[in-house]
């Protein structure tokens, strides 16, 4: 699919999409829970659908309620299933659900597609055998073949590559531990995402404490059958694109966001404030008030714990006078694309120079942004960032492989259009 975007001014109010980080965790917790879980405001992205498919494959029953909510019923432990789980292209799903699937005493094949096939999974080759799980991988990549049951015990892991591995172990350990166990973690990245995991685990009755994010102590709890209401909060990573779009091209109110969320991507507010965007922030909505011609001040942000913010931050920096600095480039290599170089290539075509210096990205903003043809590299966040930058570009911008947005924010182009963006979608010729 191609997205063709003309220079536009946007205005109005829009509801932020559901958080796929929260939705996928909700699915995992509902699978492990004894009893019924109603998931309110469920996400509809490809990653969310992958998580629903996984828990159904592992024995959960899913019902669609009339109001759009999901009813998840799961009473089986150890986990049963049909022997195969497919994670789509979701990095969180494979890293979180693999330890959970390993609670089963059956052999389970774990597969995926797209960029997930090339992401390193050697963490499991090293860690799962220490927990009594046999593992076969494709030289550290998919597919994985595992056979448990996983036996929680004191263990040490390296959290440098992703906090998502720790999330999976915390969930599996909490459900299966018969005595108190400790996971010791070195070099943990994306701590706010672990805060989100712990926050949601607490809602389901689990007890996990930590000592400065270096030791996580899991205390067994008696699992009592009960019904749980789980509300999926709005997504700060998707909303960041809307907020930056407003800063670049209009006056917009984004509703549904929780400013007290554990999501790391609310850091976007710091960048917007640094570059001089006028914000009105309340408990449930954020308004961006754009002056007649926005030319912001350059900003400096450490995005190590929120690497998904790099694309909208680059779009914002393109319209700031000077060099903006974003730290955390090392977190971008194993995304849906080699995201640092995808940004460098796409925005370079639009006339925005991006330099990479060790762990820093330097974006030279303030010059003309040119409408051209760019490619998403099949990366949802690249597609969205180019689209919002296109709103005030000189001339038409064409984004190829724009269907990549389905991974996290299927309604993105519809939402932009509802705010007044001049855009059209067409099938690739």
Instruction: From the 3D structure, determine the CATH topology of the largest domain.
Output: UDP-n-acetylglucosamine1-carboxyvinyl-transferase, Chain
Question: What is the terminal separation in angstroms?
Answer: 9 Å
CATH top level label of the largest domain = Alpha Beta
**CATH H-level superfamily title of the largest domain:** Enolpyruvate transferase domain
Strand order of the largest sheet: 22-23-1-24
Based on DSSP secondary structure assignment, what is the total number of beta strands? Answer: 24
**CATH architectural name of the largest domain:** Alpha-beta prism
Computed CA radius of gyration, to the nearest angstrom: 21 Å
Rough outline: globular
Whole-number tally of structural domains: 2
Q: Biggest sheet: strands, sense, closure? A: 4 strands, mixed
Which class of secondary structure composition applies to the elements? alpha/beta
Helical coverage, percent range: 25-40%
Summarize this entry quickly:
The chain has twelve helices and 24 strands. The protein has two domains: 2-17 and 234-422, Enolpyruvate transferase domain (UDP-n-acetylglucosamine1-carboxyvinyl-transferase, Chain), CATH 3.65.10; 20-231, Alpha-beta prism (UDP-n-acetylglucosamine1-carboxyvinyl-transferase, Chain), CATH 3.65.10.10. The protein has 429 residues and is of the alpha/beta class.
List the helices and strands and how they pair.
Blueprint: E1 2-6, E2 10-15, H1 20-32, E3 35-40, H2 46-57, E4 61-64, E5 70-74, E6 84-86, H3 91-101, E7 107-111, H4 122-127, E8 134-136, E9 144-147, E10 155-158, H5 164-176, E11 181-186, H6 191-203, E12 207-211, E13 215-219, E14 228-231, H7 236-249, E15 250-255, H8 268-274, E16 278-281, E17 285-289, E18 300-302, H9 310-318, E19 322-327, H10 339-349, E20 353-357, E21 360-365, E22 373-375, H11 380-389, E23 397-400, H12 412-418, E24 422-426
Parallel strand pairs: 2-15, 3-14, 6-7, 10-11, 18-19, 22-23
Antiparallel strand pairs: 1-23, 1-24, 3-5, 4-5, 7-9, 8-9, 11-13, 12-13, 15-17, 16-17, 19-21, 20-21
Helix pairs in contact: 1-2, 1-3, 1-6, 3-5, 5-6, 7-9, 7-11, 9-10, 9-11
């Amino acid at each position: 699919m191609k997205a063709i975007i003309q220079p536009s001014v946007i205005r109005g109010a829009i509801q932020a999409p559901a958080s796929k980080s929260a939705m996928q965790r909700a699915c995992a917790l509902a699978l492990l829970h004894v009893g019924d879980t109603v998931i309110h405001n469920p996400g509809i992205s490809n990653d969310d659908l992958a998580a629903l498919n996984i828990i159904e494959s592992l024995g959960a029953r899913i019902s669609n309620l009339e109001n759009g909510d999901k009813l998840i019923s799961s009473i089986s432990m150890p986990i049963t299933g049909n022997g195969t789980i497919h994670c789509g292209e979701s990095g969180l799903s494979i890293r979180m659900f693999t330890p959970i699937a390993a609670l089963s005493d059956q052999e389970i094949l774990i597969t995926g597609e797209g960029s997930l096939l090339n992401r390193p999974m050697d963490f499991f080759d090293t860690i799962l055998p220490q927990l009594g799980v046999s593992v076969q991988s494709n030289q550290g990549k998919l597919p994985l073949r595992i056979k448990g049951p996983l036996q929680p015990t004191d263990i040490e892991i390296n959290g440098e590559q992703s906090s998502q591995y720790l999330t999976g172990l915390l969930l599996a350990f909490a459900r299966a531990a018969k005595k108190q166990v400790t996971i010791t973690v070195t070099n943990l990245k994306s701590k706010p995402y672990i805060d989100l995991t712990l926050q949601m685990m607490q809602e389901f009755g689990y007890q996990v404490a930590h000592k400065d994010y270096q030791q996580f102590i899991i205390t067994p709890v008696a699992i009592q059958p009960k019904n749980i209401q789980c509300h999926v909060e709005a997504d700060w990573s998707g909303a960041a694109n809307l907020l930056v779009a407003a800063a670049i091209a209009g006056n917009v109110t984004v509703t549904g966001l929780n400013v007290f969320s554990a999501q790391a991507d609310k850091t976007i507010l710091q960048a917007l404030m640094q570059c001089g965007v006028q914000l009105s922030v309340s408990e449930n909505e954020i308004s961006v008030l754009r002056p007649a011609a926005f030319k912001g001040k350059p900003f400096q942000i450490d995005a190590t714990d929120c690497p998904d913010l790099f694309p909208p931050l680059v779009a914002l920096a393109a319209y700031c006078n000077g060099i903006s600095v974003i730290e955390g480039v090392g977190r971008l290599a194993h995304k849906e694309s080699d995201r640092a170089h995808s940004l460098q290539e796409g925005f370079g075509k639009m006339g925005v120079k991006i330099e990479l210096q060790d762990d820093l990205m330097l974006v030279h903003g303030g010059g003309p942004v040119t409408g051209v043809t760019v490619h998403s590299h099949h990366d949802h966040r690249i597609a969205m960032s180019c689209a919002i930058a296109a709103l005030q570009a000189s001339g038409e911008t064409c984004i190829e492989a724009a269907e990549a947005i389905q991974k996290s924010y299927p309604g993105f182009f519809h939402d932009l259009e509802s705010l007044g963006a001049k855009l059209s979608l067409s099938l690739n010729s």
